[in-house]
Amino acid sequence: MMRRLFWRIFATFWVATVVVLVAFAWISTSHFETEKIPGFDITRLQAMMDDLLSRTSRELRRERDGGDDELRPWLRSAAGFGPSTVYIFSADGRELLDRTPSAHVLAAAAAALSEPPANDVPNGVTRGDERLRARAIRTRDGRLYAAVATLEGSFLTRLLSRRPWTFWSNIVVAMIVSAVFALLLAGYVTAPLTRIRNSTRRFAEGDLDVRVGRLPFGRSAEITALASEFDGMAERIKALVESHRRLVRDVSHELRSPLARQRVALELARGGDASQINASLDRIECESDRLETMLSQALELSRLETATVAAHDDIALDTLLEDVITNADYEGAPRGRKVVLIECERLNLVGSHAALYSAFENVIRNALAYTADGSAVGVRLNRATDNLNFAQIVVRDHGPGVPADDLARIFEPFYRVDNARTRASGGTGLGLAIARRAIERHRGSIIARNAEQGGLEVVIRLPLV
User: Same domain for 337 and 300?
Assistant: First the structure.
């Protein structure tokens, strides 16, 4: 595939260069035939034909023992000189090489012979048009000739016959040079594409660690951007695959405990009395609810990890938080735990209403689960002091806090600081992970820190624009 692309690029560039060279030669030849010499009323082509007639006159006036027989070899060598052809007619109108010229050439020769130069003048008046020049020539022995230089043939044949050795040598050199540059260009384009293609093939075969990396050759802005996009895509896919693998592994591990407890409760119900059966059924119901919650949260976490585009809902953050706080405050009432909105600034953004509601609910419920009985979870909503384009939500509980080494890990799926305490609170270890995914999907950030007066603070920042 890349080899064919290499040769297609080479052939395209090389052929284009050759076409440009031929077009340039075509234009220069056309100018040569039509461009007039400054200060003279003749074109460069006419000047060249006049020079050819002057050479012909000198050859005719040279003294030769053999007469016309010795003149014919020179005339044959002069015929076809450059783009012009030279005809020489004797006084009786016969062409010395017995060629058959056109009627236009014959008429020009007859006109030149009709006005011969004086006996002491070698050349007559030069006459003609754009592509023909003629003059009468008198030799030393008094013989009279008419010399006609004319431009014959098509434009292409004239192009090829004009200084043929120089023209073709220039064309050959230019073709060789253009071929070298075409090879370099084709290699410059295809080398990085070949590397990207090989990386793509290896990635498709399962090597998730393969990357294009830095390109040593062909590092144009477009190719570099393509390689960077591939590396970014590969990194993202690897993260998603590893996340899903980890999620499946963690869910499988977490399902074992409630399933084992259900199995024990079922065995107890089969062999127990009525009170034992009721207690076992209650345990089975509790574990079933736990399994349902865990599976629904695992599905939500998977959806957030694979989502590419967030919804575009117009969200009033203050109203959204008030709804979440109202529901959470109702749940904490039996244990004397409250959720209080301490500060609230009216802020709006565009995003997914459902995802942000779930994120705030999981953070506030987590705080409500660990705050001390009789205490209140404080929530603040205002603009970030360091960047007014961000909204900042701070949720603080009055619980035991989290060890400093675990502050970053509490947002990982199924991570628990204290397994026994977490299970006692009914948590699955997925709430904060869901919150982090939802916040990151909105280009925001979420961190946890221990408050100075005790308890845990979770700080959420969301861009408003």
Answer: no
Q: Which helix (H) or strand (E) holds 106?
A: helix 103-114
Q: How confident is the model at residue 445 (pLDDT cuts 50, 70, 90)?
A: very high
75 and 121 assigned to the same domain: yes
In the sheet that holds 144-151, the strands lie side by side as 84-90, 144-151, 132-138, 127-129
At position 237, the amino acid (one-letter code) is I
Instruction: Assess whether 253 carries a catalytic annotation.
Output: yes
Asked if 293 and 314 sit in the same domain, the reply is no
Structural domain harbouring 297: 220-306
CA angle 371, 419, 279 (to 5 degrees): 90
Q: Considering the candidates 31, 104, 244, 253, report the single residue annotated as catalytic.
A: 253
In a domain, residue 261? The reply is yes
Range 328-334 average pLDDT: 81
Is 314 in the same domain as 302?
no
Return the closest-CA partner of residue 312 out of 350, 285, 280: 350
Q: What does the alpha-carbon distance between residue 302 and residue 445 come to, in Å, rounded to a whole number? A: 19
pLDDT at 430: 74
Asked if 340 and 420 sit in the same domain, the reply is yes
Kindly report the pTM of this predicted structure: 0.47
Same domain, 49 and 125: yes
Residue given tokens 């540059």 in the structure block: 181
- In tens, the pLDDT along 381-436 reads 999 988 888 999 999 999 888 888 888 888 877 666 664 344 445 455 677 887 88
